[in-house]
Amino acid sequence: MASLIKQIKKIGLVWLCAAALSACAGANSFVDLEAVDPTAASKGNIASLTKVIKENPQDAAAYNTRGSAYGTAGQPRLALADFNKAIAIDSNFYQAYGNRAVIQKASGNTEEAIADYSKALQINSQYDAAYIGLGNIYREKGNSPKALENYNKAITLGTTDPRAFHNRGLLYQINNRNSEAIEDFTTAISLAPREAAPWNGRGASYLAIGNTKSALVDFNESLRRDSQSFRAWTNNGFANEKVGNIKKANRAYRNALKLQPNHAPALQGLARLEANKSKTTKPSPD
């Protein structure tokens, strides 16, 4: 349940809006925290919404909004019940289908999530959040062509959701289309400058094309925003290793391992540093 709640909190932005990388880059989606109303999931807000529903029991929007608040608060069952009620009242409420899809996906009900996103798009073919949601599902399932198709549709519609660009960038990255990935990560950064993930993603693509100095700048920016990312610390270590900053590389790898003790790339990085150190150390005279 703790893992489910964590997933739901990370994608709560979809609900709020509806209501009013490769191993190097990491695979998690992100939200622009600047866009999230911190009071949305408060007990006071939920109580106010409950009062509105008691006074207007056929208000589908109120159920959808309260479902969003429950979802952001880490109460998926209550959120699902409210989205179900919103849809029962208004079967064309495409945002409620999209929000219910978020709950279904976070609960591991992938096919149900696909069905809900698809229904939302039947009602409103311009609903960019549904295309992004489908793209995320197909990317996680390893179906890159379908994922790319859905991200492209959202972007063609003019979405300003940074996840569309970030996640398409991850797809480009794993297919060695790093110049295109860098463009998408740059757009994601412009849309969500406080998020760490696109900086780390762009750094990984810079690293792949041999631009180590730019990669190091991006990994540092990523860590300024999220110092608890073992992937960013590992990438930082590798970039520092490449430019000869051995002490910084050592520290970065060790920071990564504090956060994720068995992370193979960080362990391998430390092993390389130790091996190179032993090669350059002269034996002491007897």
Walkthrough of the structure:
This protein is mainly α. It is built from 17 helices and no strands. The protein has helices at 2-10, 12-19, 22-25, 43-55, 60-72, 76-89, 94-106, 110-123, 128-140, 144-156, 162-174, 178-191, 197-208, 212-225, 230-243, 246-259, 264-280. Helix 6 (76-89) packs antiparallel against helix 7 and helix 15 (230-243) packs antiparallel against helix 16 (246-259). The model is unreliable at 1-23 and 27-39 (pLDDT under 50).
Draw up the topology in text.
Elements: H1 2-10, H2 12-19, H3 22-25, H4 43-55, H5 60-72, H6 76-89, H7 94-106, H8 110-123, H9 128-140, H10 144-156, H11 162-174, H12 178-191, H13 197-208, H14 212-225, H15 230-243, H16 246-259, H17 264-280
Put the structure in a nutshell.
The chain is mostly helical.
Q: What structural class do helix, strand and pairing data support?
A: mainly alpha
User: Would you list the SSEs in sequence order as H and E?
Assistant: HHHHHHHHHHHHHHHHH
Strand content: under 5%
Kindly provide the radius of gyration, computed on alpha-carbon positions and rounded to a whole number of angstroms. 22 Å
Number of separate helices: 17
Average predicted confidence as pLDDT: 87
Range of helix content = over 70%
Overall form: elongated
The largest sheet, given as strand count, sense and whether it forms a barrel, is: none
- Distance between the terminal alpha carbons, to the nearest Å? 61 Å
- The low-confidence parts are 1-23, 27-39
Please tally the β strands and state the result: 0
